[in-house]
Amino acid sequence: MNETHAHTADNGSSTTQHSTSRPGSLPLRRPAQGRMLAGVAAGFARSLAVDPAVVRVGFLVLALVGGAGLPLYLAGWLLIPDEVTGESLAGEVIRSLSGQNS
């Protein structure tokens, strides 16, 4: 839950405004720094405020136990926007294809 608090000075004017939110509430993006492959695990880790190794182990366990880890990682790679460009890989492909068709 996000809450915004305004502090009022003695003269009645508003001085500062800051937002308090839960830890790890950063937007989900694939970071440029700290990647091992495509940055999916690092992006989830940053967004959830956990160690990237925990997320990587989670993907590995999902891959070994039920086989879902690899498809989930690939879906993240396609759908999670890159931190630098702000666009997902799927979005870039769709944009480039629509540019060719017009």
Structure commentary:
With 102 residues, the protein is an alpha+beta fold. The protein has one domain. Helix content is 46%, strand content 13%. It has a two-stranded antiparallel ribbon with strand order 1-2. A hairpin with a 5-residue loop joins strand 1 (3-8) and strand 2. The longest helix has 14 residues, at 52-65.
Name the descriptors.
102 residues, alpha+beta, 4 helices, 2 strands, 46% helix, 13% strand, globular, disordered N terminus
Rg: 19 Å
* N-end to C-end Cα span: 44 Å
- Basic shape: globular
The percentage helix is 40-55%
| Overall pLDDT score | 81
Total discrete domains: 1
In percent terms, what proportion of residues is strand? Answer: 5-15%
Poorly predicted runs: 1-20
The total count of helices amounts to 4
Report the biggest beta sheet as strand number plus sense, adding barrel if it closes: 2 strands, antiparallel
Structure class? alpha+beta
The main sheet orders its strands as 1-2
Q: In total, how many beta strands?
A: 2
In N-to-C order, the SSE pattern is: EEHHHH
In short:
This protein is of the alpha+beta class and 102 residues long. The protein has helices at residues 40-48, 52-65, 69-79, 89-101, and strands at residues 3-8, 14-20. It has one domain.
Give a topology summary.
Layout (H helix, E strand, L loop, with lengths): L2 E6 L5 E7 L19 H9 L3 H14 L3 H11 L9 H13 L1
Antiparallel strand pairs: 1-2
Helix pairs in contact: 1-2, 2-3
